[in-house]
């Protein structure tokens, strides 16, 4: 009789746990792009202007957290002049990587000062940062298109790489 009660309690607990998933994936529209991203919870979005060379760019940041990880999509709307200037878009891509390298060290690199080859647009890469003995792990991708640039980040503060299966859902959503 006691075993049946324990089994019933466990079944009820598992049913409740299944009703409140830690990752509640949802499609989110990215402002002014017609693009969407998959985020694992209710997102918050902020907007600011970003200066790049002689341009002032609209920058949007959308974030959701789940499973001890932060999932962030940043996207920049490019003005017509940048849309038509592939060289300037490449400089912006490099500037975005430089900004990350100013805070994180790419995996396989000894220090922030080491020269590394930039990953091609759309390729996922990993970086680490030590903050007071806590290792922040970042998995990221930057995707370039003529009208916009999208950055995707999954970050943990556990010292471990982000959950591979959940990160794949996120990055697959950005790769479309």
Summarize the structure.
Helices cover 28% and strands 39% of the residues. By secondary structure, it is an alpha+beta fold.
Which stretches are low in confidence, meaning pLDDT under 50 for 5 or more residues running?
2-20
Helix and strand string, N-terminal first? HEEEEEHHEEEEH
Work out the strand percent: 35-45%
Roughly how many Å apart are the termini?
Answer: 54 Å
Oligomer: single chain
> Mean of the pLDDT scores?
80
Labels describing this entry:
176 residues, alpha+beta, 7-stranded antiparallel beta sheet, two-stranded antiparallel sheet, 4 helices, 9 strands
Q: In words, what does this structure look like?
A:
This protein is an alpha+beta fold. The protein is built from four helices and nine strands. It has helices spanning about 1-20, 80-85, 85-100, 165-175; strands at about 25-30, 35-40, 45-50, 55-65, 70-75, 105, 125-130, 135-145, 150-155. The chain has a seven-stranded antiparallel beta sheet with strand order 3-4-5-9-8-7-6, sandwiched between helices. Strand 7 and strand 8 form a beta hairpin. The longest helix is centred in the first third of the chain and has 18 residues, at about 1-20. Residues about 1-20 have low confidence and may be disordered.
Task: Give a topology summary.
Layout: H1 2-19, E1 26-29, E2 36-39, E3 44-52, E4 55-66, E5 69-77, H2 80-83, H3 86-101, E6 105-106, E7 125-131, E8 134-145, E9 148-156, H4 164-175
Antiparallel strand pairs: 1-2, 3-4, 4-5, 5-9, 6-7, 7-8, 8-9
């Amino acid at each position: 009789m006691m075993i049946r009660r324990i089994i019933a309690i466990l079944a009820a607990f598992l049913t409740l746990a299944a009703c409140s998933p830690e990752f509640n994936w949802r499609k989110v529209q990215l402002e002014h792009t017609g693009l969407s991203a998959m985020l694992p919870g209710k997102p918050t979005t902020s907007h600011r202007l970003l200066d790049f060379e002689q341009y002032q760019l609209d920058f949007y940041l959308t974030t959701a957290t789940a499973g001890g990880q932060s999932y962030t999509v940043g996207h920049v709307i490019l003005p017509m002049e940048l849309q038509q200037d592939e060289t300037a878009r490449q400089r912006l891509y490099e500037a975005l990587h430089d900004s990350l390298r100013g805070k994180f060290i790419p995996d396989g690199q000894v220090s922030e000062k080491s020269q590394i080859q930039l990953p091609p647009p759309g390729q996922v890469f990993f970086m680490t940062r030590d903050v007071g003995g806590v290792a922040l792990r970042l998995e990221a991708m930057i995707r370039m298109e003529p009208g916009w640039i999208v950055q995707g980040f999954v970050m943990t503060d556990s010292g471990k790489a982000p959950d591979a299966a959940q990160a794949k859902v996120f990055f697959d959503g950005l790769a479309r």
